[in-house]
Amino acid sequence: MQIVPSIFAADFAHLGDDVRKVEQAGIGMIHVDIMDGHFVPNFTMGTPITESLRRFTRVKLDHHLMIEDPDTYAPIFIKAGADCISVHYEVCRNLDRTLHMIQEHGAKAGVVINPATPVMLLENVLDIVDYVLVMSVNPGYGGQQFIPNSLAKVRELVRRRAERKRGFAIEIDGGVGPENIADVARAGVDWVVAGSSVFHTPNPAETVHQMQRLAEEACSVKV
Ligand code: DX5
Ligand code: ZN
Description:
This protein is α/β, with parallel strands linked by helices. It contains eight helices and eight strands; from the N terminus they run βαβαβαβαββαβαβαα.
């Protein structure tokens, strides 16, 4: 299981410093939230930030597209340096085509489901996707409260993955911190996005370590 810090909660006037802080914790990926003011009632960043991050760090850039038109913009973000691109089930009219298009452009393709979207709707794309992102808050803002039902969705995805030959990673996003990381890890999540719980602390690297320790303890088998 890996912690994926979300730079949405970073200090944008000191973005490079904040990225270096979590790099010190040995993280392999950062989460980049792209919002268009339509799919969600908020804006974040565009390709200039992706390009700057790509030049600045070697960690993988996980892009979460909270936008109405991922077919137009996914290739643009991949060209700017995104390694992983997730698109919302709720906006994709031709999801199968969109996922293949992302992979053909050389990125890992993920599908995201909102809290009100059930896992069963993903049945026909689970053999295509590289990862599934379960939203554990309604998208658009950081610092919201974790929706506990999300863990039932993670467990369902773990079951469905066990039935197939091809694997996919399971990611969770929203409201995760030291207080609930043990439950999240036990449910079987592979990638845990954490924004305010990491960056709104005095020592983000230490918080990442602490969350990793808590997750490992939760998953270690007692004999
Ligand atoms: C919310 C974003 C999240 C956000 C999570 O729409 O998708 O990635 O950064 O923030 P926290 O961890 O503070 O809930
Ligand atoms: Zn996100």
